[in-house]
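#dry-run=false #mode=assembly
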Amino acid sequence: MSDLIERFLAGERRALSRILTRVENGTPEGREYLRQLYPRSGRAHTIGITGGAGSGKSSLTGSLASELRKRGHEVGVIAVDPSSPFTQGAILGDRIRMQDLVLDPGVFVRSMASRGALGGLAPTIDDVVAVMDAFGFPYVFIETVGAGQDEVEIAGTALTTVLVNNPGTGDDIQALKAGIIEIADVLVVNKADRPGADVLVSQLRALLSLAPSEGRDIPILSTVATTGDGVPELVDAIDEHRAWLDTSGELDRHRRQEARHQVLSVAQRILLEQIRRETSEETLGDLVGQVAGRSLDPHTAAEQLVEQGQAV
Amino acid sequence: MSDLIERFLAGERRALSRILTRVENGTPEGREYLRQLYPRSGRAHTIGITGGAGSGKSSLTGSLASELRKRGHEVGVIAVDPSSPFTQGAILGDRIRMQDLVLDPGVFVRSMASRGALGGLAPTIDDVVAVMDAFGFPYVFIETVGAGQDEVEIAGTALTTVLVNNPGTGDDIQALKAGIIEIADVLVVNKADRPGADVLVSQLRALLSLAPSEGRDIPILSTVATTGDGVPELVDAIDEHRAWLDTSGELDRHRRQEARHQVLSVAQRILLEQIRRETSEETLGDLVGQVAGRSLDPHTAAEQLVEQGQAV
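#status=ok
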């Protein structure tokens, strides 16, 4: 184990990949790696790229990575794919565009399937981010696919959340409805060479004026990811948000809030695992049968499950 | 309390509303109502109506309710709105169209905000469904707003899941990507008077032919919710799915699976509440501070939290 850590600390990409796999799978070995590497994390600027399907998030992440490479920085990218709750298979799709970047040794791309019966981000996403951070990438992008739940989760994990919109899709109104606009630190109108881009910028500005300000104006930038137009300005806006976090005291607040969320959600998983371990399949099956047969309600059954598990 | 239950059992709508509010808020009183009423549930046909924003789910739910009223059935509708994780305010929007139905005493509409820091369905949605079921509605519709996570959750709660698509929006491909098509029991092409409806039906049929069959062909129906075209056939398809559940043994499997999910998720909530109750804010704050300051990783902190909570 210490050999792999040594190679990781020497900057060897293959060691990073192997450690990421163990951490992503949540094995005891993975947790031990995380325990050792965690104190080295906390330096990266973590950036969530969110937005609806087809909004050009992959292309934009690629353009941002290219621009940061021009400025001499190494970049880590975590691409989160939705997976079917039934097949658990990742669908790669637009990841293919990322392959240009994979050939650049200054860019490290990690694809990650979302896990779990209910979809959403993998429970170990925070751990994967921490390991990429500990490796020393000054910028780590987390690109989600899809909208909704994932985007809200990513805003907890990333220091800066970039919400990507497109002209002419009505996405602006959807974003408002889902409350997603409220989690954005930077708004982007991508595909800004299409008709309706100016209208969308005005609409977004109007929406922002309705939202409560937290002592900082949220910038709205126009980009064309495929040509790189507006991308240097977007990098500047991302850097400015980080600078604001550092000077306003928001960075500490964000880190504490995220730490609290992580500790409580991991504690919840540990507790459920304990209960599952300490309850026989027969006891659980009996309670489930009573609920399914409507002779017992789910709350009373859960209370009995917890009591029985803790009495052992 | 017994007075309200008596009025509920006598079919009084106001008693239903008051009990729903208590159950939705998860108060101890609400749990006691649920405990008493749960044995009366399990008779309703619960139907989830899912699909992207703007696909016409509200109109379709309204048309389905009208058709069922013509056939002499009473109908319950639960309309789940997304709420901002920050404002917790429900945005009513297309609920307004539901108001025609509210005037019909044979239809009971309940609006429900989604709750919780991470959005998604309220944790008490299953309890609200159980109470509507216990009240005696033969049909209970659950209409979600938005896509993704909610739709997968609703497929667990509802006996029949209807996925609404529209021509010309590319929704078909998005549905495949998110694995959502796999949770559908009935597929609908709504707004079928628009161009591209036939193409979408063919695409959906092709997608279904790729998915593993579970001993039942998934029907694809075309509707125009605003005119009612195709709605009687959709009601028939929904009834046929219920009949199939009854005769195939799938009903028992579905009920057991949902009961298991509910018991475990309620147990998880109880356990977290226990930990929060048994841990001082100081202890939690100290662990959170160590994680935020990177001297402790989240897993080790969570283990310490659990151990301290259980040592009390």
